[in-house]
TrEMBL record:
Residues 272-569 form the Type VI secretion system TssR-like VWA domain. This is Lipoprotein. Residues 623-768 form the Type VI secretion system TssR-like C-terminal domain. The lineage of its organism: Bacteria, Pseudomonadati, Bacteroidota, Bacteroidia, Bacteroidales. It comes from the Bacteria. InterPro entries: T6SS_TssR-like_C, T6SS_TssR-like_dom_2, T6SS_TssR-like_N, T6SS_TssR-like_VWA. Residues 156-240 form the Type VI secretion system TssR-like second domain. Residues 40-142 form the Type VI secretion system TssR-like N-terminal barrel domain.
Length: 768
């Protein structure tokens, strides 16, 4: 028999081949990362970061094929060759991200994260995968989300502030000047930087000992941007839970911090004729009221006065006034354009100052001489303000001007600013002619200075008559006289002689543009602009001078505050003690104040949050606000937009509604889906169906149930036309649509930035 065709040899050859193949496969599979290696999917236990441990998410709520990504929770972290082994494999730094490939007890095996390494749970570039070995779970951050409320599914917000006596007595170890130290390890030994006190943060993880917490600036972190999102480890003595979103205007805030503007509401209990709120109120830790420093005139600046100046010097009020001359009527739209540009600049470039803007004109509607001239009091509602101005400018021919010789609009503008005389005021006066002689009324100059008004005088046109010259002369004298009085008052706020000037001198900038020479040779500010004879001044020069004057005032006020801050920090702390409220809460003596605590809070005041109750009667509901981050605001607006998309169709000619059954069912399904969104334990369909509509909206938005809702049936009753008629349904949907418009125009009014994230204070009456 031919040896090649021997069947026994063929069988042996096949078996040997299979054995070799099996051996090669087995050897290959012994490698940590091999062709059979798959990335582990995120376990239900680590998909959410619930404040109550051990809760697992159901698989139906988890995204399909999402790889489990973990992060090194400390600097100098170490991996090993085997779970729990002694032989070290690799050292790696704080926040380095990894894919998980194996899990065994308290350890997991990882490969270095790379965005191009994986496709779903499959390793695309197996040969490029860097295997790091086995790491203890406790040395890693196992979740990408921050601490979450079990009942609402919302992320809990925290505030950086003092929480107990340990933070008070050992403040120097965890605080620097108005900021808190963050670290790259849970033992708080490797300092990483600092974050401002009263910042909003999110808790990712607590250390095994519970004395420190890993915090982030965002509620959810991502492997590609984790270094900029995770701030570091911080002492839990500085972490105060703020809740999720509901706050109330219940008590005044002890400090001027936007994150502490309103009081957190932790729970609410309705009784027969009243409502009881469980709140977390902030109280000052120290009492500086007995402190004082000396000003340049030898008088005292007390600490309460200093606190008031910190508020007043951050507020600027601007009134645009128009002279009562006929030629000013046709020029009014040009001034409106200047105001519009200013408003846009102030809205788009927040600078820490608060602005009110008003206008005073001599214009009356034609045929109605009894009606008062068009005036807008200084306000912060820029949208309504500009709408009013635009309406007048558009129909300016429907108005008339009663010519006068006494600058009544200038007098009235000064009067309008009297209630803001402790703040900084600007009057932009646009006119052409003067009256009387060269000197203005001394009473007007005295009142202008008394109301702390800076004048910007803008002569639009200069003719040959002496009255045009009088405008320039009178305005220059008015600005000089008022500036002299304002400078004397300013000396009562100055603590350094460096900023004193003998007089208020003028300087010329461009041709026919003069201003007080601040800060070189003048202690106050003022501007005067006029054209050449028989020519007009262009509006762009008014825009330039107004912007420059505002910048000068901001520079001046910031300098005053900076000098006061330094003086009180270095010389004005000798009489500081613990506040009576803090001493009582912490059970300490009020005169046993550590010196290090004052050094840590140089420009702000330390606060404590204490639990308490706030009760109000049914007819005396306080204002409620939601504190929302950008993602929460986007989700809320998306919900309101979806809710307002439901409409009923009405045939006006026949005066009847088209069938609404389909809309009612869709609306009920939408509300049922939204009320259980992100909730761990969703409410049953029966329970939701028995809830009042206002209560369902309260659960979804977080605001207390609205008393102004036009109709308040249960969700099941909403489907029944004989209970909720088409007219009532239409009224309800129109009400929701009006709230959407209100939300779209006003949600940015009270916004601020904390740790690089946008936050919004949203009034609950802007929601249905």
């Amino acid at each position: 028999m031919n040896r090649k065709n021997n069947p026994i040899r063929k069988i042996l050859r096949v078996r040997i081949s299979l054995l070799l193949y099996t051996t090669i496969v087995m050897l290959a599979s012994c490698a940590p990362v091999n062709r059979f290696t798959r990335l582990k999917k995120v376990p239900g236990e680590y998909a959410r970061n619930y404040e109550i441990g051990g809760i697992k998410m159901e698989q139906k709520f988890l995204e399909h094929a999402t790889p489990w990504i973990v992060f090194s929770a400390k600097d100098g972290n170490m991996s090993h060759n085997y779970p729990g082994g002694r032989i070290r494999r690799k050292e790696f730094g704080f926040l380095e991200p990894f894919f998980v490939i194996k899990e065994k007890g308290k350890h997991i095996a990882v490969v270095k994260y790379s965005p191009d390494l994986a496709e779903g749970l499959k390793l695309k570039e197996r040969k490029n995968a860097k295997y790091y070995g086995w790491i203890r779970k406790s040395d890693l951050l196992l979740r990408q989300e921050s601490e979450t409320d079990v009942y609402t599914g919302l992320k809990n917000k925290y505030i950086i502030t003092l929480t107990d006596t340990a933070a008070v007595n050992h403040s120097s170890s965890c605080l620097s000047t108005d900021s808190a130290y963050v670290f790259a390890d849970p033992d708080l030994t490797i300092r990483r930087g600092g974050i401002p006190v009263y910042s909003i943060v999110y808790l990712l993880k607590k250390s095994e000992k519970g004395n420190s917490g890993l915090i982030s600036s965002a509620p959810e972190i991502y492997a590609d941007s984790v270094a900029g999102q995770v701030l570091g480890w911080i002492s839990t003595d500085l972490l105060q839970k703020k809740g999720a979103r509901l706050h109330g205007k219940l008590y005044p805030s002890p400090v001027d911090a936007p994150s502490l503007k309103y009081v957190p509401v932790l729970s609410m209990k309705h009784q027969q004729d009243s409502t009881v709120l469980q709140v977390c109120r902030s109280i000052p830790v120290i009492d500086r009221s007995a402190n004082f420093i000396l000003n340049t005139k030898g008088g005292r600046i007390t600490y309460p006065r200093y606190e008031q100046l910190q508020t007043d010097l951050k507020k600027i009020n601007i009134v645009f006034a128009v002279e009562g001359q006929k030629e000013m009527q046709a020029e009014f739209p040009g001034m409106v354009n200047v105001i519009q540009n200013l408003v846009q600049t102030l809205r788009e470039n927040p600078d820490g100052f608060g602005y009110r803007i008003g206008v005073c004109t001599p214009f009356r509607k034609n045929g109605n001489r009894s009606e008062s001239p068009f005036v807008v009091q200084p306000c912060t509602d820029y949208i309504s303000f500009m709408d009013s101005l635009s309406e007048v400018a558009l129909h300016i021919n429907n108005f008339s001007v009663q010519e006068e010789q006494v600058w009544s609009t200038l007098h009235k503008s000064v009067d309008m600013l009297e209630k803001y005389k402790n703040e900084t005021n600007i009057i932009v006066f646009v006119g052409t002619k003067g009256y009387g002689g060269e000197s203005p009324s001394l009473s007007l100059a005295k009142k202008t200075a008394g109301n702390n008004c800076r004048i910007l005088a803008f002569q639009l046109y200069a003719g040959e008559k002496f009255t045009y010259d009088n405008f320039v002369l009178q305005m220059k004298n008015l600005i000089t006289l008022s500036a002299d009085s304002i400078s004397e008052k300013k000396k009562e706020m100055l603590v350094s002689a460096v900023h004193l000037r003998e007089k208020n001198s003028w300087r010329q900038g461009h041709k026919n543009i003069y201003s007080l020479d601040f800060p070189d040779a003048s202690m106050s500010q003022g501007w005067l602009l006029f054209p050449e004879k028989e020519k007009k001044m262009t509006w762009d020069k008014l825009s330039f001078s107004t912007d420059t004057l505002i910048s000068q005032i901001k520079q001046d006020n910031s300098m005053l505050l900076h000098e006061l801050d330094k003086a009180f920090m270095s010389m004005g702390n000798s009489k500081t003690i613990f506040s009576s409220a803090a001493a009582s809460y912490l059970n300490i003596r009020n005169d046993n104040l550590p010196a290090s605590l004052l050094n840590c809070f140089a420009y702000s005041s330390p606060l404590l949050f204490i639990p308490g109750q706030f009760r109000y009667s049914s007819g005396n509901m306080p204002e409620y606000f939601l504190l929302l981050n950008k993602e929460e605001m986007d989700n809320l607006r998306s919900f309101i937009e979806g809710l307002s998309s439901f409409e009923v169709d009405y045939v006006e000619e026949a005066s009847f509604y088209l069938p609404t059954g389909k809309i009612r069912k869709q609306l009920c399904r939408y509300l049922f889906r939204k009320v259980n969104e992100n909730r761990l334990c969703g409410m049953s369909k029966k329970r939701v169906g028995e809830m009042k509509l206002a209560d369902i909206l309260s659960v979804i938005t977080g605001c207390p149930a609205s008393l102004s809702f036009p109709v308040n049936p249960t969700l099941e009753e909403l489907k029944k036309k004989w209970v909720v008629t088409d007219e009532l349904l239409d009224a309800m949907l129109q009400y929701i649509a009006s709230k959407k418009r209100l939300l779209d125009t006003g949600y940015k009014k009270e916004s601020f930035i904390s740790n690089g994230q946008s936050y919004y204070w949203l009034r609950c009456d802007m929601l249905p």
